[in-house]
Amino acid sequence: MSSELYIEVKKGEGLMPVSILYLKGPLDVNTQNGLVIKAAELVNSGASNVVIDLKDVDYMGSVGIRAINTVSKSLMKKGGKLGLSNSSGSSARIMKTLGFDSYFNVYDTAESAVNEF
């Protein structure tokens, strides 16, 4: 398991523009700041709708949920929203355990999430 979180940003187009963050690696106490910083950069540059794709997240702890919640709150302040896609393994388990699986909009794929915006 890698100790770094890699983030690739792509643009999607539903009814409005969407930024998609493809994560690869662990989302934990050592890497969560990278996600928060990258999302803040997007929000500061005008993005208001974001999808975080969790397909290649090999581990997510509770601080990963906190980081995702921080991103969600910053988007809501700008009138935007967050979608999650491809949640499975540890990301799905931690969201279910903490009750966030009903709090976040979770989609099967990034493409299906984009289509909801």
Q: How do the helices and strands line up, and which of them pair or pack?
A:
Layout: E1 6-13, E2 17-27, H1 32-44, E3 49-60, H2 62-77, E4 81-85, H3 89-98, E5 105-107, H4 110-114
Parallel strand pairs: 2-3, 3-4, 4-5
Antiparallel strand pairs: 1-2
Shape type: globular
In percent, how helical is the residue content? 25-40%
Query: What does the average pLDDT come to?
Result: 91
Distance between the termini: 33 Å
Lateral arrangement of strands in the main beta sheet:
1-2-3-4-5
Q: In total, how many beta strands? A: 5
Description:
- The protein is α/β, with parallel strands linked by helices and 117 residues long.
- It has a single domain, classed as Transcription Regulator spoIIAA (2-Layer Sandwich), CATH 3.30.750.24.
- It is 38% helix and 33% strand.
- The protein contains four helices and five strands; from the N terminus they run ββαβαβαβα.
- It has helices spanning 32-44, 62-77, 89-98, 110-114, and strands spanning 6-13, 17-27, 49-60, 81-85, 105-107.
- The protein has a five-stranded mixed β-sheet.
- Helix 3 links the parallel strand 4 and strand 5 (105-107).
- 35% of the residues are buried.
Characteristic key phrases:
117 residues, alpha/beta, five-stranded mixed sheet
Question: Brief description of this entry?
Answer:
The chain has 117 residues and is an alpha/beta fold. 38% of the residues lie in helices and 33% in strands.
